[in-house]
């Protein structure tokens, strides 16, 4: 749906979601209607509607004397989220090895190269990384798998800042992606699934370390 076709509340919700993805607001941040409206150039009424919707979606909580706050995932929730991602991405890689095309694998390789080129811009590299993983899911040729992955999108927003700012993290990700791509090109479903699972395990370790340092 085009932004012009959305209601004001839907437009405010879309703008807030994008702001969360971009790191404008982070887990734990207070979302005062007036401040959010001013920052996003919106009126307060649709912002209020958007915040209520985000509370229903589990993205926002209300705290006494603070009001709306971006929800923070607990250690257990982060582990559970990555467990689901691992299951889905292992399956996606296995299916992509079976159903994907050379053109799709070429696209994944190009995106991986773009991630490497943006190692000095962690936020940009992280955005390209999201495109890489979306491409992997689409190469799997299973709409229900894609829908299942999309259902995790809200929770992924709550992970907070990218871990790509950690030293050689981008190079590590690029190497892991390359292993996935090599298995895809070989049509080796088992190796593709194992490479995808290993990649998610490494991502979880970095995420938990960042969570521990933040605590």
From TrEMBL:
Keywords: DNA-binding, Transcription, Transcription regulation. Pfam families: FCD (PF07729), GntR (PF00392). SUPFAM superfamilies: GntR ligand-binding domain-like (SSF48008), Winged helix' DNA-binding domain (SSF46785). Gene3D superfamilies: GntR ligand-binding domain-like, Winged helix-like DNA-binding domain superfamily/Winged helix DNA-binding domain. One of its GO terms (molecular function) is DNA binding. Residues 6-73 form the HTH gntR-type domain. InterPro entries: GntR_C, TF_FadR/GntR_C, Tscrpt_reg_HTH_GntR, WH-like_DNA-bd_sf, WH_DNA-bd_sf. It comes from the Bacteria. This is GntR family transcriptional regulator. CDD domains: WHTH_GntR.
